[in-house]
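Agenda item 2: S-adenosylmethionine complex prediction
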Amino acid sequence: MTKTTTGERAGYMFNNATPEARNQLRHLAQILDPDTERALFELGIGSGWQVTEIGAGAGTLTTWLADQVGPDGHVTAVDVDPRYIPQGPNVTIRAGDIREIELPAGSQQVIVARLVLMHLPEREQVLADLTRALAPGGAMVVADWDCTWRDMIRRSPSPRATELIERFQDALLAYGESRGADMGWAKRAPEVMLRLGLVSVVSRIESRSWRGGTGICRLHHSNSIQREAELIDGGMSRDDLAELRQVLRDPQLMLSGYLMHTTIGRRLASA
Ligand SMILES: C[S@@+](CC[C@H](N)C(=O)[O-])C[C@H]1O[C@@H](n2cnc3c(N)ncnc32)[C@H](O)[C@@H]1O
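Presented output:
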């Protein structure tokens, strides 16, 4: 088991139990659900499918999946802290760490893991275990941000705003790495999926820009609140953070999101 320098088990750098987490997870859903839903729609998701979502967060995708698979299908939503995931007649919520949870072998038509594996040092082992849970012909959907791509500022209101955003990114991502996150994992996912025997592996890479007060700017604002103590440990002052939050609300600002890699691979139909 990988441990951090403080001796805790390494892993997720945020915490759904914090007061800001609900906002954070809603912003993620607003930014990302349309593209993930399109990818799942293109896979042909439909009535009767058995689907598992790992790290379901706000649960908005869980609800969408439950609507797609209907009463004859089923969605299992796994999260270490599932407090925001809505119940549903065809939804099972499993509270727990995906590193410890076993899914029935060969059972799932789709497994989707968005913004989870990048956080877990054991990501390759988890992916191998999840691959065994796919039904023959089933699809693995791994969506993670490439946070090594840092050319995100499309328009800045001032040099000071640019400096604050860059220092915020440096401190937040360094904190994530200290917890075991791999900011470049998204780029390696296709190679690992091929090594695990998945076929028809394809990655789609997407990003869009957002004005201050919208999308990714609201997410950064929320993350700056949820991880304020760690950002201060990383060299930002309270005044810097207050100024950063003003910048993130300023419509003069335009930021790109991180690059989202959605990688899909299939288990062989005869496996
Ligand atoms: C960054 S959020 C992403 C939420 C959602 N998938 C999305 O993309 O909007 C990560 C989610 O994964 C959950 N999570 C983190 N580590 C986990 C683990 N080891 N096992 C299960 N869930 C985990 C967190 O509690 C959180 O809800």
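Discussion summary: Strands lie at 50-54, 74-79, 91-95, 108-114, 134-146, 153-155, 199-206, 209-211, 254-256, 259-266.
Owner for follow-up: CH.
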